[in-house]
């Protein structure tokens, strides 16, 4: 810390209790100056030789036959006046970052200018501030902190503005040129090991990180912090990511962890102001420089403290641009009264809708560009896949809420476009969870809920689970069983045609499944009867099923026995759509596991009717 000593005479000020200060001298004191609750018994001549204001006040007191002068609203109080008084006596005075502002304001009040005496206190303090304080990083911050209690004097003397400009300028300095001390405790830098010729040399550690200044600025009060950050941004030389990191660090530093502390009457106004200030200071790149997790946490706090609508909408728009980075936990925004649900599903739905609008606008612009635009389009499509995945996880989580309406669940699920959800396993889990927690759903409601899911986009594990799920409508179970048989027949045929692809896992699109179904309908009954999983023919969960060679004759069919029995019964019902009622009870109606290989013509006819009846 920088300091400056003034004067050379020994300090002879003494105290008599808490309210009386006097100077030890052979001469009797002839004036009493009252500052606040303290009385200073001093001599007129030293004071009048340095202060123009005291000259006027002493003359006025003499005319009134009084030896007391009351200094009303003296900036800095008794301590600041004592510094000025000691300077007038030529006694030793030490100025530093903690008292220099008070001394400067007091000297201005007393009019200790060069007109009164050359080398007066104002001049010396200004030299100290400009040559030492403003050149020091930490001293500038300390001085800025002390200006708050001395407003409006410190503002009028431009001390606040000069400190802010000094701090903002230093934050923009190249880290390689930072030679002053700073605070940085947030994380340890990973050392970089230099390897040359197979030998490891000394570790190279970056001495000064780019965000070296963030923690020190966090010590500022919210109004001063806002002015400093505004000045930093106005310089135009600071990366938005560092500004975002600074705002995050400030929020962590000052926002309480508990909900009770956030909404308490004592601190609610301060917390609301803090959140609104941080939102106001967010980089203009609409959230690119701030993580989605931080923005969502800030939104949760904003809702709790009751920020205005404009700040909340700004946060939601920024979150929608980075929704692909969100996690399910971050999206669990607690609902506020009068909502009856656990989480605010409507707000998340609004964010998703805004995300889709942003993506559509971005893609419309990119499609009109050259190859670079095409690349951006592909990247945007990839981010939508991440959005689809996180929303499916969010749906599974909120499905546990007994108060969540079916309409809210369906609307949110449908807000994700089809191409953003190539696999429906996550959606199936969410639907299954909703069915499990809402047992009072009608048959029509269950059917509407399950219509969100495309069974052709389920993986094998999800299909096997769905085939045995008693909560699903029978129609959905039939569809799952049918397309699993199509998948199995297509897989066996592929293994026969190209054995090298036995270990390759593929996911067919809807169009490919339709083509496969059409090609295999004529032989589906025969193949379902003959399809068996042997040791090296079909993988399950990434591993091949192993069976003893003695059981290879009977084998293991793809579907569990329970699912095969359901399919056998439903096969007869499905066949009834294409034949008369008598054929349904006749011996010619057979299940797919009992079809003879030679009956291909009737199998093809029945398969066509059955495929039409369930799709």
Give me some keywords for this one:
53% helix; alpha+beta; single chain; 11 strands; 615 residues
Report on this structure.
This protein has 615 residues and is an alpha+beta fold. Among the domains are: 1-156, Potassium Channel Kv1.1, Chain A (2-Layer Sandwich); 211-317, no CATH class. The protein is 53% helix and 7% strand. It is built from 28 helices and eleven strands. Residues 188-192, 200-204, 371-379, 500-559 and 570-615 have low confidence and may be disordered.
Structural class: alpha+beta
Average pLDDT for all residues: 79
Q: What is the CATH topology assignment of the domain at 1-156? A: Potassium Channel Kv1.1, Chain A
Tally of DSSP β-strands: 11
CATH homolog superfamily of the domain at 1-156? Potassium Channel Kv1.1, Chain A
Tell me the helix content.
40-55%
Major beta-sheet overview = 5 strands, mixed
**Briefly, what CATH class of the domain at 1-156?**
Alpha Beta
Radius of gyration using CA atoms only = 40 Å
Proportion of β residues?
A: 5-15%
Second rung of CATH, namely the architecture of the domain at 1-156: 2-Layer Sandwich
| Biggest sheet: strand arrangement | 2-3-5-4-6
Tell me which oligomeric state these chains represent. Answer: single chain
